[in-house]
Amino acid sequence: MALKRLAQELEPLEREKWVAIQADETNMLRWKLGLWVVNPESVWHGAYLTAEMKFPNDYPYQPPTFRFLTRNIYHPNIYPNGDLCISILHKPGDDAQSGELASERWNVLHGVESVLRSVLLLLDNPEINSPANVDAGVLYRDKRAEYNNRAKEIVEKSQKDIPAGARMPTPEELMPPPVKTVEDDADFWNMTDDEADFGGSDSDMDDFEEEDEDEDEDDDDKRYDNDA
């Protein structure tokens, strides 16, 4: 089940330009990937962040794990070893201890793409109430300019990990392909008089009226002969 689902998810993701995925041919339950931060408004803009995802045998019923391989990422929701703490990767169901609702946690409708997009959103909108890196959470809350400068330093270092020949996609390359519209056939609505008949009879209603009159006259003649 897990391998089939991952094969289905991998194919469309390989066409995306904001992520580069390298599945382990000897173990399809382990993926290495590179994430481009393409949001121009992000303090992480321009970063090429490498990471690793591992999938359980009962995926998608249970969530994968996500760990950054880019060294020394400083973020409130990333542990010093690179492990990511994010609700979407927590086991399904409500959790009374953390207060997380089932709708915030993993479910079978999620997939690799939804995880990656959630990771990119989390970079700029960290959860600092229960941070994985307390120091980063405090710096983000109290000294945002200093935190941003530290993030930009990581962006510059991450660019050294860009594979040879690779580059960050342009905004135009990230635009979805245009959807082709089907034009109405104008002739369909301009039917000729012959087409408007829909195969009806060419008989004139006056003919039916004349035949009825003739039949009435014959009946009158028969009644007259009988009376005579």
From TrEMBL:
Any one cellular-component term (Gene Ontology): SCF ubiquitin ligase complex
Domain UBC core: start-end pairs: 1-160
GO molecular function: ATP binding; ubiquitin protein ligase activity
Family annotation (Gene3D superfamilies): Ubiquitin Conjugating Enzyme
Name used for this protein in its record: Ubiquitin-conjugating enzyme E2 2
GO biological process, one term: silent mating-type cassette heterochromatin formation
SMART domains xrefs: UBCc
Pfam families listed in its UniProt record: UQ_con
Acidic residues composition-biased segments: 184-220
Alphabetical UniProt keywords: ATP-binding, Nucleotide-binding, Transferase, Ubl conjugation pathway
PANTHER family xrefs: UBIQUITIN-CONJUGATING ENZYME E2
Family to which this protein belongs: Belongs to the ubiquitin-conjugating enzyme family.
Transferase listed as a keyword: yes
Region named Disordered: 158-228
Active-site residues from the entry: C85 (glycyl thioester intermediate)
SUPFAM superfamilies attached to this UniProt entry: UBC-like
Signal peptide: none
Cross-referenced PROSITE patterns: UBC_1, UBC_2
